[in-house]
UniProtKB/TrEMBL annotation, chains A, B:
Protein name per its UniProtKB record: FAD-dependent pyridine nucleotide-disulfide oxidoreductase
Keywords, sorted A to Z: FAD, Flavoprotein, Oxidoreductase, Redox-active center
Organism phylogeny: Bacteria, Thermotogati, Deinococcota, Deinococci, Deinococcales
Coiled-coil segments on the chain, per record: none
Organism this protein belongs to: Deinococcus phoenicis
Keyword match Mitochondrion: no
GO terms, molecular function: oxidoreductase activity
Amino acid sequence: MRIVIVGGVAAGMSAASRARRLNPDVQVVVFERGGDISYGACGLPYVIGGDVPDFGHLIARTPERLRGQGIGVRLHHDVTGVDAAARTVTVLDRDSGRTLTEPYDRLLIATGVSAVRPDWARTELGGVHVLRDLPDGRAVAASLRGARRACIIGGGYIGLEMAEALRARGLSVVLLEKGPEVAGRMLDREYQQRVRAELERRGVEVRCGTTVEGLTGKAGRVTGVQTDHGLIRADLVIVAVGVKPNTALAQAAGARIGRTGAVAVNARQETSVEGISAAGDNTESTHRVTRRKVHLPLGLTANRMGRVAGVNMAGGDARFPGVVGTGIFKVFGLGAARTGLTQAEADGLGLRAVSVDVDSTDHAGYYPDAAPIHVRLTAERGSGRLLGAQLVGQPDSVKRVDVVAALLHKRASVQDLFELDLAYAPPFSSVWDVLLVAADRLGRELCS
Amino acid sequence: MRIVIVGGVAAGMSAASRARRLNPDVQVVVFERGGDISYGACGLPYVIGGDVPDFGHLIARTPERLRGQGIGVRLHHDVTGVDAAARTVTVLDRDSGRTLTEPYDRLLIATGVSAVRPDWARTELGGVHVLRDLPDGRAVAASLRGARRACIIGGGYIGLEMAEALRARGLSVVLLEKGPEVAGRMLDREYQQRVRAELERRGVEVRCGTTVEGLTGKAGRVTGVQTDHGLIRADLVIVAVGVKPNTALAQAAGARIGRTGAVAVNARQETSVEGISAAGDNTESTHRVTRRKVHLPLGLTANRMGRVAGVNMAGGDARFPGVVGTGIFKVFGLGAARTGLTQAEADGLGLRAVSVDVDSTDHAGYYPDAAPIHVRLTAERGSGRLLGAQLVGQPDSVKRVDVVAALLHKRASVQDLFELDLAYAPPFSSVWDVLLVAADRLGRELCS
């Protein structure tokens, strides 16, 4: 049995390890287009900002160690075609320029996502970057030298985390967002505003409702960003306007692409083509709250998908359980987290959703360093089913979003949340944890 | 409708507020034996240790404010008898010495617990204290003046929190525990040892397996603690060897006392006597994991019981959902939390329990200040049902015990925990949160 894996980062390497672990008789070969494998891409902003001393810290497993586990790793190998009938892939060895034909019994397509580059960002100018993989991270780090003014385009996870990183490096930072607020896809409006307030408090200039029209440059270096509200001078530009799944190879193999634009799979991570699986950021999943297909490329999801694919390819039986839409980020002294649906998302789906907002403290008000925490809890009128939660507060305090994620997983109700026996002592929470207070209020709101 | 409440701290005041809120036509009178109401007793060690500037900070609601809500509060009023047939209580006004007979339609007995005082602790010597209520807290604070050597007897929540408080005040501290380890009722042995190691690291001298035989004194002040392993010099002694429910009044009323020793109630917090409810630390509850009656006097449980009682007495319908045995405490730089059953508790109940231990970091290992976190996860062989979790780590990191508490509430399985879509970003957790790692290992252990 020969398993071929295309892509050696989160999903690909999880699959490789899991397959070998389950069945030491399988042969596993990983083709990775780039020169790095098995790294934590989510950590890139923290190396750039200086919290993590160098990019090497993000690497979980080296090719040598993987070879020791019986996993063949071929770097700079670009899989360019699939013959699903013959069960072979065409591989370009970018170092030698040779093209190989490699057989497989099971193929995993774990090609991830690419950063979206609008037309104006397709430039040769130095100092203009996306941030997706390790080479991008190294390139940004190199561009820091001598840079003074950064312009970040896009107010999603990466834009927000990069705003903090570049401020930490002493740059002035302007953050441009086309939409009306930052964190637009993650949070409802009031919670977006809290994130923006924190950015501004830390000296980031935030301009929402601003469309980029082009870049200006001089002597091969970027000098500014032209917008519909004027020119912003910048010698470092981060383009963080979204990602798109890398589906070309799956499409070439004849695999079905879902309505989300990502590769469609069943719960075993199998595509519509016999013998071919997909996992990771290029692959869609099922949202347990809405039962719809979604494309939410996040680290845990990618690793879990890879693991499921690895088990199944090696002859086991595992199922991807779906997601509930959990996300979390830190920006300066603020943590923001969400799970399930926002009110806006629920409205967009035509659900009869109702939300309450609670402003409390993350632990007993009288205990030192009690900090504000803001919670929005959302449920379905009629059924009383929990739909989602949003939390903004000190970073350590918002991980309690996981409690709601656990209940969403079990399709639990607001009443269930209110009944929980949560841990209380003054340094950890109020007697009634803010989640319980929110559930109490939401329960009454649902009855009114 | 006249509701009489005996006891004005957590359960009693929650009941009073809730009853008035639900039904503004009811008359609510609270008789409190002491001079304080509505305070957070869990905060006492933090005032003594200096984290909280004074005891007033612990008071949530004053008698004046409660009167404004239409709740009559009578301080220094000791309810000494009940005539359940006549629906009256006998009340001693300790200020005037008069005895009153007060009618009720609904009576709530929320008399809490008392600290256990062994024979040797029944002393007139100055400097010997229990810590249960606000006067105890004030007395300990007064004894701090001039004190240099503290001896704490008992290694439970209060003993541990007081060890930290008294070290913070610059005293030398010896902690005596009769059993083989500290935190004996909360954690399994390995986790108890981690707690002891932290105490010792912070200069607390811990002596387990030590039985107290008596106290020594001079000129009316304590000078030492006589043990089976010799004399320990001390000018401040904290006796924290446990609590017992105050059931005398409930017994006098003819209410059934459960096998736990606390007052037995149904899910509406009603005792076996018509018209009489009980709530709070004096009352037993149902453990949702074992379906047995338990006596776990804790702050959230007391408040929740009071709330349920208040709703029902005022004509509504509420049910106490039971507990899952969640507890948490901080000692110096360490947090410890538990929910459900420990392995030892499960063994004691004859369950086929199996546990795994995971040592990881509370967030991504490469992100600054990643600290060790230790998790024991316990489940039932055969069914795969989760039974409990124990966590020890940096204080902020152990509140994730609530995720397991949520799943225990829903009688979920190890597989459910492993499937959760938990929040991940490098400052908050590893890609696979330590709880997921534990669930993965435990799932495999259950299959083996």
